[in-house]
Amino acid sequence: MTTHLRTSQRLLDGCTLFIGGEWKNGMETFQRFDPSSLSQCTGVYAMSTEEMVADAYKYAKTAQENWAAFTAQQRSEVLRKASDILEEHLETATRQLTADMGKAIRDARGEVLRSIAILRYYSGDALQPSGDVYPSADNSTFLLTVEEPLGVICAITPWNFPFAIPTWKIAPALVYGNSVVWKPAEAASGSAVLLAEVFEAAGLPSGVLNLITGSGSRLSKALTGNEALAAITFTGSGGVGNRIRQSVADRNIKIQLELGGKNPAIVLADADLEDASLQVLRGAMYSTGQRCTATSRVYVERAVSEDFTQKIIDKVNALIVGDPYIETTEVGPLGSPEQLKSVNQFLALAKSEGVTILANASAPDSDCFFPPMVITDVSAKSRLVTDEIFGPILVLQVVENFQEAVSHANNTEFGLSSSLFTRDLTTAMKFIKLTQSGVVHVNRETAGVEPHVPFGGLKGSSSLNREQGTAAREFFTTTKTVYIRST
Ligand code: NAP
Ligand code: MG
Q1: With 70 as the cut, is the pLDDT of residue 82 above it?
Q2: Quick one: 387 exposed, middle or buried, by C-beta within 10 A (0-12, 13-18, 19+)?
Q3: Is 91 among the catalytic positions?
Q4: What are 96-136's pLDDT values in tens digits?
Q5: How far is the CA of 258 from the centre of ligand 1 (A)?
Q6: Catalytic residue among 15, 154, 292, 368
């Protein structure tokens, strides 16, 4: 049976708010344009008002009480159906993702497949053991814990993973009995409409998932100040994350923030240089460097620095950068004109600081395209080394040894992901202890995470509550401790 989705019609009509089970228009609209072809309008979207956000919370609150009374089997079944429907629409979803933010089509498809896997994981997890039984000091007491949903969750998501990040927040929130008010990034709103339609078609009751399209800064107060709000799950920049944290600081709101990164890779003299250069290239340049876990700095031991540098130069210069809808394209454009402007400012800074540009891929000189590049001779204090660029610019530095590399790698306010390339197990074990990041890779690129294990950063990259895997169950539920005494 094919499920009919109306995403393309909604994006023509600007009917993109999904509140209380109904699709609605707004008084105002905003448009988005294809970053690989800026003359193409990819969608018209309703700009939500604060009143509409308040409505969404009202519906979410009532709907949550009914949804929590569903059995785990029933909730699991809705997610399983959602995964099947998304799979049925894999190609449409993939093209929508690319139209939203320019991700190369094969990576976009990989991301939608990941969303399908996430839905299936949480569909299965719904039926896993819940709560624990403990021995009691009193033999006539049965002592146990039960998990309960939190209530209404606000999910605020970024544009760089339009399907995967919303799915890894919304799927667990729903399956453990919560309802959701979801504000996707403006630049990922088309994918968001499609995903909300998938949940609707899967039979999710009205009001359990509400989609708010519109500006994050304009709706901030309405999103974070509603009294029905029980928890916020946010992924995005540190600046916005910290503002959200402050806005709920005097309330008892559970909060999960996954923020930026400035992820280092270390290449030691004993590494497999061919493999290391390929991993570093992928980590730094794929998805146009716009992954929170992207490799942004590489520290190479002097003994192999010439060999490694040549290998990475050759690989960067050979990258296929261009039309993201072509299957062989490796790197698409940056996500939006705003993103291009921001990365161009870092390039201007690099030029003004007189850094050396080692490699520079060829890229179309139009729309939001930007040539992937490797730079060196950069001061450790430069913003190129300290700030998240969120684009395909890799800073390469030569170091004398492992200790120096680790000290540079850790010298950052961020702590999301890090990589070490070596064949020496003892050094690898040392690195796992010393590196200040929530995700650690040995002989793998910094980017890329599996959906069934906890994920999150240290230091300025995270509020330290992990996402995904069993960590998601912990975040999206609370515990009641129950003492039952037989008389
Ligand atoms: P962003 O500018 O912080 O925006 C994230 C979300 O917050 C968007 O939906 C945005 O809406 C909304 N928003 C903006 N201002 C707000 C406010 N004052 N109150 C409430 N919501 C507000 O981040 P982005 O540019 O979309 O994404 C890139 C950033 O995300 C990078 O820093 C990247 O490292 C980080 N990221 C982290 C992870 C991780 O897991 N650690 C994963 C992916 C991305 P609008 O779009 O409408 O402004
Ligand atoms: Mg932004």
Answers
A1: yes
A2: middle
A3: no
A4: 999 999 999 999 999 999 999 999 999 999 999 999 999 99
A5: 9
A6: 292
Among 165, 167, 235, the mutation site with the greatest number of ligand 1 atoms within 8 A of its Cβ is 235
* Nearest listed ligand to the Cα of residue 166: 1
Helix 189-201 and helix 72-88, axial crossing angle in degrees, nearest 10: 130
Q: In this predicted model, what pLDDT tens digit does every residue of 457-475 receive, in sequence order? A: 999 999 999 999 999 999 9
Ligand 1 neighbours, Cβ below 6 Å, are 156-161, 183-186, 215-217, 220, 223, 235-237, 240, 243-244, 258-261, 292, 388, 390, 416, 457, 461
Using CA atoms, how far residue 244 sits from 86, 130, 311, 312, 414, in Å, is 31, 31, 43, 39, 18
Task: Name the residue at shortest CA distance from atom 43 of ligand 1.
Answer: 292
pLDDT over 80 (residue 13)? yes
Nearest Cα neighbor of 298 from 263, 349, 272 is: 263
- The number of the ligand 1 atom at minimal distance from the alpha carbon of 261 is 34
Spatial distance between the Cα atoms of 243 and 259, rounded to a whole number of angstroms:
12
Q: Are 61 and 19 in contact (CB under 8 A)?
A: no
7-259+462-484: CATH, from 3.90.550.10, 3.40.190.290, 3.40.605.10, 3.50.50.60: 3.40.605.10
Test site for ligand 1: of 292, 336, 346, 455, most ligand atoms within 8 A of the Cβ: 292
CA 135-466-113 angle, to 5 degrees, is 115
| 42 burial via Cβ count (<10 Å: 0-12, 13-18, 19+) | buried
What is the number of the ligand closest to the CA of 219? 1
Q: Which ligand is nearest to the CA of 157?
A: 1
Architecture of domain 263-450: 3-Layer(aba) Sandwich (3.40)
The 10s digit of each residue's pLDDT in 289-319 is: 999 999 999 999 999 999 999 999 999 999 9
Average pLDDT over residues 187-195: 98
Determine the 3-state secondary structure of 477 from DSSP.
strand
Instruction: Delimit the domains of the chain by residue range.
Output: 7-259+462-484, 263-450
Round to whole Å and give the CA distance between 189 and 169.
16
> Mean pLDDT throughout 227-245?
97
Q: Is 450 annotated in the active site?
A: no
Give the per-residue pLDDT at 2.
Answer: 87
